[in-house]
Structure to design on (446 residues):
């Protein structure tokens, strides 16, 4: 006898059962409605891209996490890849903006909710296949774009029931200015930011060791770690302003940009923003303000920033852009653990189950189901005649139905239908002509 094959999904992926999908649809519904109210339009792109579209856009470590697709047919044995699964939704957007520049508005605001794939090590709330919920705006350098993005994301999280989140805010060019001030050579800047992005996991001393392993000499690495070791403090921007003259032109412009974002934000958004000089974000395409949603004890629920050079990699000229990506999977995990979903999510898949106790009653049961569906009720017909009432009753309970409509020989003879309230277990017979209306009242009264 052959060994039984495993039925588990591939590591880092999941099967989504009905209640899982209801949770996901609930979150996506709120995300989509907020994005649309902020003027963002929908976009979808293919699950896979030409490999050259993705490679070189995510930095050294990001490139290693791209799921490559081997060439097919006669090229299969070569082991070469010409396609890759979508790593994020931002690079495909940049490609779309370059491809359809003549058809899109000058300022293009889009949202995109689709799965992405990363060859990452699975962990709590981290998967190899997961959904992202992105908003991006291309065509403007105004800080109004960052403010609109932050406002939309805050509104989404508040509507979902989160109250303990903060927005970490920093600027890539400010980090570059600090690296320069710490006398770290430009050819080491990318390595320094990769090391800094690990701060939450390894701490300041771990970052110092990472900088050393990447060949960044003293005193630069110590000066830089001392800067970022301050992390967040309420007066950090003010203290940085005291050193304003030490910053180069790019650093001063970055500082002014952060000030503008904070000034333009509403009070409700501003009170959630924490300027954090230690925030780096690992993707190499960021050029300006960077931001991340953080929940105490949970970690990041999403992040984003400005990337004014990415579209230019496809178009040959730079197009300003800024966006944010919400981590749908992690949001759902946290909401489930905290019991944040409304009770209706856990309710059954149907409102009513229609049962017939003999084959002669089957036609009447089908007519009843049609009448109930015209009332926009969710209706399931138990497909088998069963003189033992326990079987369809057990099925109705498993499906979470609120009511049952029952037809049998006695109901046919009297021109009636039996209605069972599955919450109170009360059952009554009513004239067939009134049955659909009575069931509708029963379901909607719950």
């Amino acid at each position: 006898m052959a060994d039984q094959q495993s039925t588990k999904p591939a590591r880092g992926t999941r099967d989504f059962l009905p209640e899982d999908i209801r949770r996901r649809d609930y979150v996506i519904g709120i995300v989509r409605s907020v994005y649309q109210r902020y003027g963002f339009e929908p976009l979808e792109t293919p699950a896979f891209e030409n490999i050259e579209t993705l490679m070189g856009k995510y930095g050294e470590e990001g490139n290693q996490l791209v799921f490559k697709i081997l060439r097919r047919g006669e090229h299969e044995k070569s082991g070469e890849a010409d396609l890759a699964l979508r790593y994020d939704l931002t690079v495909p957007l940049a490609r779309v903006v370059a491809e359809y520049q003549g058809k899109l508005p000058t300022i293009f605001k889009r949202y995109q909710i689709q799965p992405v794939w990363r060859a990452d090590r699975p962990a709590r709330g981290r998967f190899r296949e997961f959904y992202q919920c992105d908003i991006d705006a291309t065509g403007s350098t105004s800080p109004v774009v960052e403010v609109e993005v932050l406002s939309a994301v805050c509104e989404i999280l508040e509507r979902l029931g989160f109250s303990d989140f903060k927005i970490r805010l920093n600027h890539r060019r400010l980090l570059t200015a600090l690296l320069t001030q710490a006398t770290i050579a430009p050819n080491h800047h990318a390595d320094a930011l990769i090391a800094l992005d690990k701060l939450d996991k390894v701490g300041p001393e771990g970052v110092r060791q990472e900088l050393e392993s990447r060949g960044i000499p003293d005193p630069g690495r110590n000066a830089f770690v001392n800067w970022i070791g301050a992390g967040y403090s309420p007066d950090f921007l003010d203290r940085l302003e005291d050193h304003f003259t030490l910053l180069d032109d790019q650093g001063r412009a970055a500082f002014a940009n952060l000030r503008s974002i904070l000034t333009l934000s509403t009070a409700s958004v501003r009170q959630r923003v924490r300027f954090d000089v230690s925030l780096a974000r690992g993707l190499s395409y960021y050029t300006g303000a960077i931001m991340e949603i953080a929940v105490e004890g949970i970690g990041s629920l999403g992040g984003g920033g400005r990337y004014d050079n990415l579209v230019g990699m496809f178009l040959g000229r730079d197009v300003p852009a800024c966006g944010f990506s919400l981590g749908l999977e992690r949001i759902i995990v946290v909401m489930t653990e905290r019991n944040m979903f409304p009770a209706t999510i856990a309710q059954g898949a149907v409102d009513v189950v229609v049962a017939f106790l003999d084959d002669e009653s089957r036609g009447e049961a089908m007519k009843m189901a049609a009448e109930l569906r015209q009332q926009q009720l969710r209706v399931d017909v138990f497909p088998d005649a069963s003189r033992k009432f326990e079987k369809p009753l057990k099925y109705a309970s498993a499906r979470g139905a609120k009511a049952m409509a029952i037809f049998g020989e006695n109901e046919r003879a009297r021109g009636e239908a039996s209605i069972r309230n599955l919450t109170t277990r009360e059952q009554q017979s009513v004239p067939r002509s009134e049955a659909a209306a009575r069931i509708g009242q029963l379901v909607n009264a719950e």
User: Anything to note?
Assistant: The first strand starts at residue 41 and ends at 42.
